[in-house]
């Protein structure tokens, strides 16, 4: 089959690889009909997530049709011919973490738990196409994928919603929603979202759906900010204005009640010398993150507020404003999204028309053009917000 | 017993050498920082504050000391780094000798004092370097590698499984289940109510077989066993099943003891277990958890063999296995 693979830093390549087979009894094989490039794929391509290997199949946002199921998948859960969206964390459904609906912390699904444990203290779940640290599972930017624990994760789509309406249930819609949910939003809340990429846009929509009074988008790409404005959010361009004073202005001096970091480890920002400091430290691997958005979110949030982190971090960061966090009674909440927890309720919201996930799609292209897609997505060319690949 | 005692003595010696190596490392760090941060004070105390050359030499020596310090404090191979200090001492003594030839009075007295101190340190460095080199030769590191002379090795590990103790106990008590999660076992065949015959594929390139008997058991709580007869590697184990505080899970606590013989067999066993013998037992328990909670060992494309600490990275790329790889059994 054809698959988009990691070919070293800053390089992906579509290659011919073997077709997937059933390896465990609870596996299913899915023929992929739609798949997407995620912002967190860029962290892999940029070389900031360790344990990638040449030939790793990329991609963790995909959906398609079940063409084979293992002997351990009950027929009432999944059958050949079912149309499914596959959540990016692989979860067994049986361990203590899964029982607590902490699917991205599944205790069984990562065969390379040892590496994860060294990096993170305790192991985390397997993830499709997301380094060997998260299990070494082939990803979904391909024609077919093997889906472990197929009786737990995949969500059957039985209505006539299009692929593009439901594809993002695999990751970015639940991730954005969880970012807003962790904020425990009240009717009077002003919510500021750092990053107007796909996850940020969905965090903004979710914050509104959950009742926020006002939602602010912070980014520097005019086209991304325009997209947020068209959806009814307020735009702040950090290239044009000082973010802190602008946020104070927009909140009567209080600061946003809730702040969402939808940027993560590769933040860019206006302050040249701090950017240079982080960039150098990251390049020599003495910190793994450029955490500017997180620092600014903590400094901006009103006292007693919540800072919710859904941007990806991989290791260690410097200059964490612990003083602001502690002395101003901030709550920091975070997690890789427990997608399985949110798929069904969010599918219902899509069906009801509360959220329109298709509004962020700017590009559609065949799988073979994935390298070009990565290029324009990474370099923010051609007003690229979200790319859907068709295998 | 004497063999074990010999090994312990070797370990003690090596620990002493390591400790002294670290001591020298800290000394280098102190000197290096002083020479870089306050070179003029160092020059005055050494009696060379009258020379322009020393203004360049003292910080350079300081920088060199930091290299010694980094090596001695961070490397396990103290011998190599101790020798770099000996070389450094020789350079210092040469420089001091040259300085002495041109000076008299108060400066000469200060230089003599410094030279005496450096000579003393040189003796200590030389001693440490020689001993560290010898200790490397005996290979007596405090892991199983030292066991080539014969020793017993005790491994412990624990995990929590979200199943009741009765169920976890019953699974383990059916000893024929053990190879489903203990990677090195080929087969366990029960030969009686408490006796069994074990086959392992490691570490000699041929099968190792031994008989075992259950020596103690309490249903739902504990199983203890040991090898019987003339086992190549006499071994014993205990597993305890303890109810976890959550009321649904079971803590599994395992202790394994291997009586590692001397000679070729012992060497092979030590090599098999490598530097981290604990990891294999840890792998086994993770697989046990997977088998009991999910039904089987979890496999990925990068790790089709399942959880194996030694094969975590690098491993095969995360792309589907070819038919040839599957036929060779890579998926199992």
UniProtKB/TrEMBL annotation, chain A:
<feature type="domain" description="Alcohol dehydrogenase-like C-terminal">
    <location>
        <begin position="198"/>
        <end position="268"/>
    </location>
</feature>
<keyword id="KW-0862">Zinc</keyword>
<keyword id="KW-0479">Metal-binding</keyword>
<keyword id="KW-0560">Oxidoreductase</keyword>
<dbReference type="Pfam" id="PF00107">
    <property type="entry name" value="ADH_zinc_N"/>
</dbReference>
<dbReference type="Pfam" id="PF08240">
    <property type="entry name" value="ADH_N"/>
</dbReference>
<dbReference type="InterPro" id="IPR036291">
    <property type="entry name" value="NAD(P)-bd_dom_sf"/>
</dbReference>
<protein>
    <submittedName>
        <fullName>Glutathione-dependent formaldehyde dehydrogenase</fullName>
    </submittedName>
</protein>
<dbReference type="InterPro" id="IPR013149">
    <property type="entry name" value="ADH-like_C"/>
</dbReference>
<comment type="similarity">
    <text>Belongs to the zinc-containing alcohol dehydrogenase family.</text>
</comment>
<feature type="domain" description="Alcohol dehydrogenase-like N-terminal">
    <location>
        <begin position="25"/>
        <end position="155"/>
    </location>
</feature>
<dbReference type="InterPro" id="IPR013154">
    <property type="entry name" value="ADH-like_N"/>
</dbReference>
<dbReference type="InterPro" id="IPR011032">
    <property type="entry name" value="GroES-like_sf"/>
</dbReference>
<dbReference type="InterPro" id="IPR002328">
    <property type="entry name" value="ADH_Zn_CS"/>
</dbReference>
From TrEMBL, chain B:
<keyword id="KW-1133">Transmembrane helix</keyword>
<keyword id="KW-0812">Transmembrane</keyword>
<dbReference type="InterPro" id="IPR023393">
    <property type="entry name" value="START-like_dom_sf"/>
</dbReference>
<dbReference type="InterPro" id="IPR005031">
    <property type="entry name" value="COQ10_START"/>
</dbReference>
<protein>
    <recommendedName>
        <fullName>Coenzyme Q-binding protein COQ10 START domain-containing protein</fullName>
    </recommendedName>
</protein>
<feature type="domain" description="Coenzyme Q-binding protein COQ10 START">
    <location>
        <begin position="163"/>
        <end position="285"/>
    </location>
</feature>
<feature type="region of interest" description="Disordered">
    <location>
        <begin position="300"/>
        <end position="332"/>
    </location>
</feature>
<dbReference type="Pfam" id="PF03364">
    <property type="entry name" value="Polyketide_cyc"/>
</dbReference>
<dbReference type="InterPro" id="IPR047137">
    <property type="entry name" value="ORF3"/>
</dbReference>
<feature type="transmembrane region" description="Helical">
    <location>
        <begin position="111"/>
        <end position="130"/>
    </location>
</feature>
<keyword id="KW-0472">Membrane</keyword>
């Amino acid at each position: 089959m054809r698959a988009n693979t990691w070919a070293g830093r800053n390089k992906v390549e579509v290659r011919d690889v073997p077709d997937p087979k059933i390896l465990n009894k609870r596996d299913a094989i899915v023929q992929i009909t739609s798949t997407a490039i995620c912002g967190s794929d860029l962290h892999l391509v940029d070389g900031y997530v360790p344990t990638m290997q040449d030939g790793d199949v990329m991609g963790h946002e995909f959906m398609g049709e079940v063409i084979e199921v293992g002997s351990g998948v009950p027929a009432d859960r999944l059958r050949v011919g079912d149309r499914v969206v596959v959540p990016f964390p692989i979860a067994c459904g049986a361990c203590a973490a899964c029982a607590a609906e902490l699917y991205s912390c599944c205790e069984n699904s990562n065969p390379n738990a040892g590496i994860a444990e060294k990096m993170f203290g305790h192991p985390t779940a397997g993830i499709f196409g997301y380094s060997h640290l998260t299990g070494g599972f082939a990803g979904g930017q391909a024609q077919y994928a093997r889906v472990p624990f197929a009786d737990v994760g995949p969500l059957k789509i039985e209505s006539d919603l299009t692929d593009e309406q439901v594809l993002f249930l695999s990751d970015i819609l639940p991730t954005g929603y969880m970012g807003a949910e962790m904020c425990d939003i009240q009717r009077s809340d002003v919510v500021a979202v750092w990053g107007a990429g796909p996850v940020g846009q969905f965090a903004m929509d979710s914050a509104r759906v959950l009742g926020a009074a006002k939602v602010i988008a912070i980014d520097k790409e005019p086209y991304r900010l325009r997209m947020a404005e068209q959806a009814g959010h307020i735009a702040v361009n950090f290239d044009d204005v000082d973010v802190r004073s602008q946020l104070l202005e927009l909140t009567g001096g209080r600061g946003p009640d809730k702040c969402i970091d939808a940027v993560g480890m590769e933040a860019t920002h206006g302050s040249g010398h701090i950017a240079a400091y982080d960039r150098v430290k990251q390049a020599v691997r003495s910190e793994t993150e450029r955490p500017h958005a997180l620092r600014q979110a903590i400094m901006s949030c009103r006292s007693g507020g919540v800072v919710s982190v859904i941007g990806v971090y991989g290791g260690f960061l410097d200059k964490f404003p612990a003083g602001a966090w502690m002395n101003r009674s901030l709550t920091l909440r975070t997690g890789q999204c427990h997608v399985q927890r949110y798929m069904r309720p969010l599918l219902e919201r899509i069906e009801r028309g509360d959220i329109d996930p298709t509004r962020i799609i700017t590009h559609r292209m065949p799988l073979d053009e994935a390298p070009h897609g990565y290029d324009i997505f990474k370099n923010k060319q051609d007003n690229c917000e979200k790319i859907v690949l068709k295998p | 017993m004497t063999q074990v005692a010999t090994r312990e003595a070797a370990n003690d010696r090596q620990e002493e050498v390591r400790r002294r190596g670290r001591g020298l490392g800290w000394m280098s760090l102190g000197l290096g920082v002083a020479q870089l941060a306050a070179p003029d004070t160092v020059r005055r105390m050494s009696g060379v504050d009258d020379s322009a050359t020393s203004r360049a030499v003292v910080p350079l020596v300081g920088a060199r000391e930091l290299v010694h310090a980094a090596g001695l404090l961070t490397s396990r191979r103290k011998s190599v780094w101790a020798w770099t200090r000996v070389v450094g001492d020789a350079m210092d003594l040469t420089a001091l000798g040259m300085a002495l030839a041109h000076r008299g009075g108060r400066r000469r007295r200060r230089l003599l004092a410094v030279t005496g101190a450096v000579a003393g340190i040189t003796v200590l460095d030389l001693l440490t370097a020689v001993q560290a080199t010898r200790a490397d030769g005996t290979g007596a590191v405090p892991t199983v590698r030292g066991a080539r002379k014969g020793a017993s090795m005790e491994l412990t590990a624990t995990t929590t499984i979200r199943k009741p103790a009765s169920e976890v106990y019953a699974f383990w008590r059916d000893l024929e289940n053990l190879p489903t999660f203990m990677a090195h076992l080929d087969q366990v065949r029960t030969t009686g109510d408490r006796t069994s015959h074990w086959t392992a594929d490691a570490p000699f390139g041929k099968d190792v077989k031994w008989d075992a008997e259950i020596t103690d058991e309490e249903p739902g709580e504990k199983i203890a066993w040991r090898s019987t007869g003339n086992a190549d590697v006499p071994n014993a184990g205990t597993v305890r099943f303890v109810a976890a505080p959550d009321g649904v899970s079971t803590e599994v606590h395992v202790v394994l003891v291997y009586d590692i013989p001397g000679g070729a067999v012992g060497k092979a066993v030590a090599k098999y277990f490598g530097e981290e013998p604990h990891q294999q037992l840890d792998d086994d328990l993770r697989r046990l958890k997977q088998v009991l909670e999910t039904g089987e060992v979890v496999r990925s494309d990068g790790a089709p063999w399942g959880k194996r600490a030694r094969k975590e990275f690098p491993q095969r790329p995360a792309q589907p296995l070819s038919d040839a790889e599957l036929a060779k059994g890579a998926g199992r």
